[in-house]
Fold this protein.
Amino acid sequence: MAAGGENVPVCSAEHGPRAAQHDGMRKDGGGDPYWSRPESRVWKVMLLLGTCLLYCARVTVPICAVALSTRFDWDKKQSGIVLSSFFWGYCLTQIIGGHISDQIGGEKVLLLSASAWGFLTVLTPLLTHITSAHLVFMTSSRFLMGLLQGVYFPSLASLLSQKVRENERAFTYSTVGTGSQCGTLVIGGAGSLLLDWYGWESVFYFSGLLTLLWVYCTCKYLLNEKELIIPIDYLMRSLSISKQTKVPWKQLFKKAPIWAVIIAQLSTASTFFTLLSWLPTFFKETFPESKGWVFNVVPWLVAIPTSLFSGFLSDHLINQGYKTITIRKFMQVIGSGVSSVFALCLGQTSSFCKAIVFASASVGLQTFNHSGISVNVQDLAPSCAGLLFGVGNTGGALLGVICVYLAGYLIETTGSWISVFNLVAAVNSIGLCAFLMFGEAQRVDTDSAYVDL
């Protein structure tokens, strides 16, 4: 209970390796829990590459959707089932992944999950040749992929909240976050060429083998042997939120800023997933004579500098004395509001060039979310950022399932893509309004009534 009125994290329940990491701090013997600048630069690059490969694996099926539909004779509804099945798995491991990361360290969880999804990606085309139930198999494969990748961003949020200073978080997260655009760009460009030259199977081999190479390099050069060992008793203890932790969830989830960032996060995540899943098909069907590498590359190429710029601008304005919450909300207006305007324009144009411009603007401006709600979770509750990020992303994945499937249903029944982009704008607007009304940037995970939780 209380001890001298000291404020302590109400979500902190750390034991074992994670607690020792906080107590012992860095390997160089310093007492600073944050990465040094050289360490931060190296980890930033490796996490950017990891996020890139995460999306390479994730976008293999959307990139190959038309080829798979032709090969296995799927209609739009069946394609929607395969595409949306990823999010059913994705939503199930967000919270537990974030919680385990808060306990044993996000870097360990990242590497375990990457190893598993790398092997799955390589094996998928091999296994399609020994089964006749292709729809069931691909749906199950995407579901499992979702399970494995669901822990990634909560683990990343947990790791960065513990290792990166507050006034550097936006740029760090934005830099790492560009991996999502880089991955979509790489698989959109190289994947489109591989698809044309060698067939859809080569796209899976390319993505899976690169992921396994990244895991090997990260383990070999960034972590020592001791850091790679996860004691079984600590892992099992992390798998459940025990009574011993005494985390006051009821108090935490009564706070309006927590719900504001969760609602905004689930809105932006679900609309991003919808565009990620259906944009390749939109361009392929609306502009059948266009080159796949153009519409699969250009929007994500534009998103890389916009993401970096948003992070730099956010940290710069905060360092200039502007209130953190003001900057977070400003970034979110651009990320959710302005990007939705361009999404609506995308549904109204019949010009390929204008469609590329609108898609690039919409996807590019969405990256301002990295400097808005994505780091706001770390502002509010750094001691349990992984778990709370998992809660928001779980909601985003669940809504993503609905939106991705609903988009396919709307296309099939109305024969128009306008309804899809209207759906994206409507969902974004709900999340933006919630964040503007109730969002805050002050810590809510400290309480003088709790100590050593």
Observations:
- The mean pLDDT is 81.
- The first strand starts at residue 8 and ends at 9.
